[in-house]
Amino acid sequence: MGDNQKLLIKYEKIFKIIEKLADDKNEWCNIYKQLENFSEGIGSLKDNKIQDLNLVNSSKKNLFNYEKKYIPIIKENIKVKEKLETKTLLMTVGMQIEPIILSILILKPEKVYLLHTESSLESASIVGNDMEIRNLNIDIHLEKIYEDDVKQNYNIIKEIIDKIKNQKIVTDPTCGRKMMNTSLSLAAFYYRIPMVYLNGIEVNRNVVPFSERIKEIDNPFDVYGDIELELVENLYNSHFYDAAIKVCENLLESVKNPASYAKIEKLNELITIYRDWDRFEHSNPKQNPELSKKLIKIKTDFNRLGISNRWLPPNIEKNIEFLEEIEKKWIKGKLNMIDEYRIIDLFINAQRRGTEKQAKYDDAIARLYRVTEMLSTYFLLKFDIESSDYPNYKKLTNNLGISFDELNIKYNYKNKTIYQK
Fold it and tell me: Are strands 111-116 and 139-144 parallel, antiparallel or unpaired?
């Protein structure tokens, strides 16, 4: 079997896909013939040398209109398009226009920024005037960048991203020189914007027609972890809630990818709930307690958005139950509410203040003093004594089933024995 026949067998999957998509048999036969011409012209795989460059170029040219028609409706490309829901596409432009046109036709954005250099302006103009792209009513913008100035290019791209606000942006560095692509990649990584490229099977440095598939590029922040998010996690776990919220707010100012923005926003909401709990805002006398409901909602939102469970406390269900118990005993307008749950809450709050990381020892001691006061009041309330300043002894003796004189004898005895010890 000759090398060209082997090449045709290698492309058999491509042929079958196009055969299913082609509108009629004559169209398929024409595509198949041009693919055979490409295979013949591309030469032997073993020789790594193009046999007939003119035949390769002519077959690719003849096939491109078919590619524009069928590449966007290949299953893998549709899947990426539907996942990204691109509103704005930022692309670098080199000398090759075909990959740029195909990416646009696959993703079908509402707006495209073509980042071209002086030498690739003509290519950008051809892309902008492509009939299939024009038929989609896409808003095309041509933006000049530089072949070798990464810093200046980054600033140009940053201005575009800042202007777009929180739309669903996607970047594509498939074409363009290395420095151009570096600038776009840096902006995409910093702003957590999805990045794609058009991948295809290459033979002797030529992409096989109909092999093009749009692929997502993993963001290093997602793969290796974001330093700022690690900082948020450390602050959150150490109960420095205000500092963690501040870092989240700074992140929200820079993140332009709606999916990443939504996740960080929910993370910020979670930390705010625990910050408010740390401030005892479940017991505000003027506001209805809502923290337990907020915590239930944020747990649901985390699951819906696929946010890692590492951010949720392992005992979140018990946290929700605890808050619900506190909120059940809430009385509007009443100050200094005292019950077993609030006493425990204050004690644990004191423990947090007294950790080595927080080192708020004065605050911890003050809270422990308050715990002892609350415990005294809590036990007195069990005997209907609401104030130690003006105790209702008559009510107390009735509850205990003894006379005032008997109560006084018991008190003096206890008082005497305590001091003797």
Answer: parallel
Give the sign of the dihedral formed by CA 19, CA 22, CA 28, CA 33. negative
Q: Do 79 and 10 share a structural domain?
A: no
In whole angstroms, give the CA distance from residue 13 to residue 11. 5
**Contact (CB, 8 A) for 347 and 368:** yes
Q: Is residue 401 part of a domain?
A: no
- Residue pLDDT, tens place only, 110-142: 999 999 999 999 999 999 999 999 999 999 999
Pull the structure tokens for residue 286.
């003027």
Which segments of the chain have a pLDDT < 70?
Answer: 1-11, 44-49, 166, 219-226, 283-289, 333-336, 383, 386-392, 418-421
Based on the fold, state whether residues 151 and 191 are members of the same structural domain: yes
Whether the Cβ atoms of residue 196 and residue 215 lie closer than 8 Å to each other? yes
Same domain? For 166 and 116 the reply is yes
CB atoms within 10 A of CB 274: 17
Strands 206-207 vs 88-92: parallel, antiparallel or unpaired: unpaired
Instruction: Please give the distance of CA 232 from its chain centroid, rounded to a whole number.
Output: 14
On whether residue 268 sits in a domain, the answer given is yes
Task: Give phi and psi for 170, each to the nearest 5.
Answer: -135, 145
Contacts of residue 295, Cβ cutoff 8 Å, sequence gap at least 6: 273, 316, 319, 320, 323
DSSP string, 80-128: HHHHH--SEEEEE--S--HHHHHHHHHH--SEEEEEE-STTHHHHHHHH
Q: Are 191 and 255 in contact (CB under 8 A)?
A: yes
Write down the pLDDT at residue 220. 61
Our count of domains for the chain comes to 3
- The torsion of the CA quartet 338, 339, 340, 343, rounded to 10 degrees, works out to -20
CA 416 to centroid of chain Cα atoms: 66
Beta sheet of 139-144, edge-to-edge order? 139-144, 111-116, 88-92, 169-172, 195-199, 213-217
Q: Is 306 left (phi over 0), alpha (psi -120 to 50) or beta?
A: left
Residues 233 and 86: their CA atoms lie apart, in Å, by 30
Distance CA 98, CA 156 (A): 25
DSSP strands (E only) in 189-331: 195-199, 202-203, 206-207, 213-217
H or E, element range at 252: helix 241-254
Handedness of CA 402, 406, 408, 413 (dihedral sign): negative
